[in-house]
Amino acid sequence: SAAENGYTKGNKVTVTEGTFSNKIYGGNSKKNKSNNNIVTINGGTFTNTNTMTDGIYGGYSAQNTNDYVATGNQVIINCGTFTSKVYGAYSQYGKVKENGVAVGGSTTEMKNVYGGYVNDANTAEKNWVTVTDGKIDNVVGGYSWSGDAIENCVIISGGTISKGVKGGQTADGSANGNKVIISGGEINSKIYGGYCTSEPADGNEITISGGKINSEVIAGGRSGNGTAINNVITINAASGEKPVFSADTIIYGGDNTTSSKDKRTGNTLNLQTKGLEMKNIANFENLNFYLQEDTINGDTILTLTDDKGTDISGSNVNVGMAGSTSTLQVGDMVNLLTNSNGITADNVTYGRLQQGVSIKYEFTTDLSGNSIVATVDKAPVKTTEQSKSPVETQIASAAFVNSGADTVAGSGIANAVQTAGRSSAEMFGASGGGNMRYKSGSYSDMRGYNLALGFAKAIQNNAGKLTYGPLLEYGWGNYTSHLDSGIRADGNTKYYGIGMIVRQDNNSGLYYEGSVRYGRMDADYASGDMIGAGGSKVYADYDSSSSYYGAHVGIGRVSKLNDTVKADIYAKLLYTHQSGDSVILGGAGNGEVYDFDAVNSTRARLGARLSKENGERGTYYAGLAYEYEFDGEAKATVKGLSTPAPSIKGSSGMLELGYIIQNKDVNAPAVDIGFQGWSGKKQGFSGNINFIWKF
Q: Among 161, 208, 326, 471, which is least packed by CB within 10 angstroms?
C-alpha cells in the first residue's frame, strides 16, 4: 500500500515465488505514518541494489517530523535469495519503534537485515531481528544514521552470520540498552551489543548460551570518544549445550579501540557454565563466576590462551553457586580463570561465595600460579539476611487464615445466632475484607476478603438456647512484603475449608462459644529484588500449598444497662496451625529448597462492645479490644541452616464502629455494616457488610 499524504497501516503483502528487481513495501507513506504492515516472503529472488535505500520494507515513511512515524511493521522471511536490503521499517526522517524482521528457512540467503532504520538524526527504539536459519551477511536490530539506537534486540538461534551482528547501531548518536541473544548458529564476524562512532555505548547486553562464535564479542563498541560502560556479557548453557568459541575470540566489556574514554566502569562478565576456552577477555570491572550444579572439585571455568597473558587488575571477582548445587566441601577448589601464559591481578577485589540467594560460605580466592582459584574454607556457614523474604509469605498466609478465623468467630457466629431456626436449619453467612500491615521484624501488607456460609439450628434448653451448625469458608487476597534492606516481594494467597460453630446463650446473659475449622491454603511468592551470587538483582519465585486447622473458644456476658443500651464483655482464645511445606526457589541461578516449618498462632482477645437501639430502625454499636499473639513465628531451613524467622508475636489494639439496619419486613434482611481499625503489631483496617436473613 502506498500513499502520498495518507496514513498506511495494517496492510499485508505475501510473496511466494518469482524474481524481483523492484522495491517491495508493506506500507509506504511519503508524508504520514506507516504502522503495523506485514510483508511475508516464502520464496523468490530479490536483486534490487540500485541505491542505498532500495530494498524490502515492512513499513516506509518519509514524513519530516520528530514523531514516531513507523511502528509495529514486520518482514517475515521463510525462504529466498536476497541481494536487496531488508528493513522491518525505514524512516527518512522520523523515529522508528518496535519494528522487526524474522528470518528462517535453510535456503534463505541475505545481505543486510535491519529491524528498524532511521536515515536522519532521530531514534531507532525497540526494533528487533530474529534469525532461526539461513545465511546472512549483516544483522542490525535498530540503526540510526545520526540519532540514538535504544533498546533494540537481535535474537539468533540458528543460521550463519558472516559479516556482523549489532543489537543497536548509530553513526553520531548513542547506542544504549541494546541486546544480542545467541543460543545457536554460527557467527563469523564481530558481535556488538551496541555500536556507535562518537557518543556513549552504555548499558548494552550480550547473552550467549549456544552456537559457535568465531569472532570478537564486544558489549559496548564505539570508535570515537564516547564512553562504553555498564555493559553486560553473560555466557551460559541455557540452550542445552555450552557455546564454542574460536581460538581467536576475545570478549570485551567496552570497545577494543585505544580511545582514552572510559570503557571499563561497570562492565560485567557473567560466566554461568564451565569448560569455556577462548583467547582472552578485556575491559571488565566485574567478573562473576557462577558454579553450576555439575561443578566438582578441580574444575576450570574459563581457560584463556593469549600468549600475551591476561590482565584483570583492578577488577572485582565474585564467586557464586547455582542454588540447586550440592553443598561444597571444605578444601574444595575451583579454577575460575587460567592462562598458562600468565595472569596479572593487581588490586583485584574478591567478593563473596554465595549459593543462589540463600547460603553464604567462607572462602579464599586468590591468584595461584597462572590461575585465579577459589578455595572453600567453611561450608556452608549461614543463610543470608535476604533469605527471610521467602519466609515472609508464610507469615502473610498464616495471618490471612487468622482473618478467616476472626470472620467465623465474629460476625459468623453472631449471624448464625440471629438466623438459627428451632425446627429446621437456616442458612447464615458472614463476609469481611481489609487492608492490614503485619509487623514481623520487617512487615507484610495483606489485602483480602473472607467469606463464610453455613447452616445453623437452635435448640432450647433449661439454661437458654444452644446454636450450632456446619460452614464452608473461603478467602482470597494478595500481599506485599518488605525487608529493611529494601527487598520487596509480592504474591497471592487463598484458603478454602470447612468448619463447625456452636454457641450457648443463657437466660442470664452469659454465653460461651466455640468453632473448629480445617482447610487448605495456597500461596505464591515473587521478587525481583533478591541479590544473586554475583551481587546483582535476580528474580526468585515459588508456589506453596499446605493444610491448616484451627479452633477458638470464647466466653462473655451481655448486660442490659437501660432500655436501649447493652454491654457485651468477652474473652476469646483463638488457635490456628498452618502445616509446613518444601518449595524450590525458582529463578535463574537459584534452585534452593526451602523447608518451611509449621506456623502456629495462639491469640487471646479481651474486649467490650456497647450497642444502642435506634428505635425500630436499627442498632448502633462501638467497641474496643486488646489482642496478644503468643506465637506467630515462621521458621525455615535451607540445606539444614535456619533462615531469619519473621514473627508477629506481640500486642494489638482494635476499635470498632458499626450499625445494624433493621428492616420492618420480617422476610427482608437486616444489614450489618461494621468497621474495625487496628494498631500495634497489626495495623490497618477491616470491614464487613453482612446481610442477616430470617426465613
A: 326
